[in-house]
């Protein structure tokens, strides 16, 4: 399977300096004192996948994800997050399937310009969306279970629950394609 091998952050929230977070196995625990940046790592993964709702990232505006300075450190000019996936068995779908490593990166500058890259090639937000569709990973996927998500699932109306089930079953990919075809 396509597996996340590491996350690179720079200028994102509390990660002022370039930081590499290795994810060496299927299960990775992050521990540390309150405020050390654990949840910021989760915010970073949601963000690079295309999250556009600042509130979902615990901010008021999107620029709040850029390191805002501290003590003697100047604020950063931009935030960058990169997810690096191992695809040595070629399980990824679409045009990237032949690459042994797939990198997905998002950069935001203070002027509000957001750019996405797949393997250093600039792409659209929806290309990033596409590559993860049906994998459970994605801003509305179930792979990242935030606080309150379990409650949301338990209290979900049947139609909402169905969206999660279809994503889990890998059906959403095809439904989206069909919608697009019908709208043409
Ligand atoms: P807890 O155990 O309490 O859940 P945590 O490890 O999850 O803590 P985070 O919420 O990830 O902590 O990190 C919070 C820290 O990140 C705070 O100190 C906050 O000031 C800092 N932070 C958030 N956004 C920025 C930013 N844009 N620039 C600099 N620091 C930031
Ligand atoms: Mg936290």
How would you characterize this protein structure?
23% of the residues are buried. With 184 residues, the protein is of the alpha+beta class. The chain has a six-stranded antiparallel β-sheet. It has helices at 38-48, 125-132, 149-154, 158-169, 172-183, and strands at residues 3-10, 19-22, 78-86, 101-109, 114-118, 121-123. The longest helix is centred in the last third of the chain and has 12 residues, at 158-169. It is built from five helices and six strands, in the order E-E-H-E-E-E-E-H-H-H-H.
Task: Give a quick summary of the entry.
The protein has about 180 residues and is α+β, with helices and mostly antiparallel strands. The protein is about 25% helix and about 20% strand.
Helix/strand-derived category reads alpha+beta
Distance between the termini: 33 Å
The number of distinct β-strands equals 6
Residue runs with pLDDT of under 50 for 5 or more positions: none
List the strand order in the largest sheet: 2-1-3-4-5-6
List the ligand species.
Answer: adenosine-5'-triphosphate, magnesium ion
Largest sheet: 6 strands, antiparallel
Number of helices: 5
Share of residues in helices: 25-40%
What series of H and E elements makes up the topology? Answer: EEHEEEEHHHH
Overall mean pLDDT: 90
Rg over C-alpha atoms, rounded to the nearest angstrom: 17 Å
Strand content: 15-25%
Q: Quick one: overall form?
A: globular
């Amino acid at each position: 399977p396509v597996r996340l091998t590491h996350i690179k952050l720079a200028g994102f929230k509390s990660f002022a300096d370039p930081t590499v977070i290795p994810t060496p196995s299927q299960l990775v625990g992050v521990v540390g004192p309150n405020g050390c940046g654990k949840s910021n790592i989760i915010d970073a993964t949601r963000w690079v996948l295309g999250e556009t709702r600042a509130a979902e990232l615990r901010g008021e505006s999107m620029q709040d994800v850029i390191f805002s300075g501290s003590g003697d450190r100047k604020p950063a000019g931009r935030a960058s997050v990169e997810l690096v996936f191992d695809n040595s068995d070629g399980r990824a779908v679409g045009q990237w399937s032949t690459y042994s490593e797939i990198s997905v990166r998002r950069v935001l500058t203070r002027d509000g310009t957001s750019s996405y890259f797949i393997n250093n090639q600039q792409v659209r937000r929806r290309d990033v969306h596409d590559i993860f569709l049906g994998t459970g990973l994605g801003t509305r996927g179930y792979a990242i279970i935030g606080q309150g998500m379990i409650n949301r699932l338990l209290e979900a109306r049947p139609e909402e629950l169905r969206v999660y089930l279809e994503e889990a079953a890998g059906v959403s990919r095809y439904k989206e394609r069909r919608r697009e075809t019908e709208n043409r």
